[in-house]
Design brief:
The structure is a homodimer.
Chain A: E1 2-5, H1 14-26, H2 32-35, H3 49-54, H4 71-81, E2 83-88, H5 94-107, E3 116-118, E4 129-132, H6 135-138, E5 144-148, E6 160-162, H7 165-172
Parallel strand pairs in A: 1-2, 1-4, 2-3, 4-5, 5-6
Chain lengths: ~170, ~170
């Protein structure tokens, strides 16, 4: 069985990093609670929205992300049972490409480079399960789509949902 | 119809670049004719083979590759008729990742980032046609595999072959 796993906001806490970088840039104290239910860029004043997007071209932004709680332990177990591939829509962010490779080397060394995919849209993936935080990635997937809960997607309906990695383990192990 | 196109030795002349870099490193005069029918690393003295592999981690190696003859013109036409994706097994070479993105921006700007895939093995690709110079990428493909001729694969049998981009145009346009 082939299992695809998204990186940002599933394995790596991009959401928290956007908030931290925003607070650094503007000397603010934005909290995750204030952003709940929406994207980080939707939670800041209109004239600062563009600056959130620009985080994605900062050298080191993706390299420094923290792994999402329990992702390492559960994925290590999943990799024993499934043909696990990492699938990240990273081509939008050229600076991130090498950083994502290095990040995986550090935090998920048991995922061989042959099992890593940096892509654009994910409609070309052929497999059985896809764990992703974005409905637009999941909706064209031919297998079983699992929506991984992130603060920005709590209002998204129509997908089987996993709230954290313990729930992934419960469903798939 | 979804058409996947490999980069190295299909769109980009990696083979010639390996020869040029080798000649630069060792002050030699190796020619493509001397390598014909085999890999470049198989065409150099045994104790220099490792150095060919190390080209793939040189900064700028992939960024400076020359596009294969007619690849730009034919792919531009193909992109009007097919859903064209670039699929490169680049994850083995972390230095190449951003360089390949920039190389595509320069030489194939009409291929949107959403249509670019940097991956490891290509068994996860779901689509109709794959043009590649490596039998191990083609053999598990569920659609129509096309072997793009490269000096190293002239002895490979068992695949429908295209010798150059004009032949690709003839078959697919």
């Amino acid at each position: 069985m082939t299992l695809f796993v998204d990186m940002d906001e599933v394995m790596a806490d991009t959401y928290a990093a956007h908030i931290a970088q925003y607070n650094l840039d503007y000397d603010e104290g934005l909290t995750a609670a204030e952003c709940h239910g929406q994207e980080v860029w939707q939670s800041v004043p209109f004239d600062r929205r563009e600056s959130i997007y620009r985080h994605t071209s900062l050298e080191g932004f993706f390299r420094a992300l923290r792994p999402i709680k329990d992702s390492q332990a559960v994925l290590k177990e999943l990799a024993q049972k499934y043909d696990v591939y990492i699938a990240s829509a990273a081509m939008e962010f050229p600076v991130s490409l090498r950083e994502k490779s290095e990040w995986l080397d550090e935090h998920f060394p048991f995922i061989h480079w042959k099992k890593r995919i940096l892509c654009g849209d994910k409609h070309i993936l052929k497999g059985d399960i896809l764990i992703d935080d974005r409905g637009y990635n999941l909706e064209k997937f031919e297998g079983r789509p699992l929506l991984f809960t992130s603060p920005h997607n709590i209002g998204t309906n129509g997908f089987e949902r996993v709230n954290d990695w313990q729930e992934v383990a419960h469903k798939l192990l």
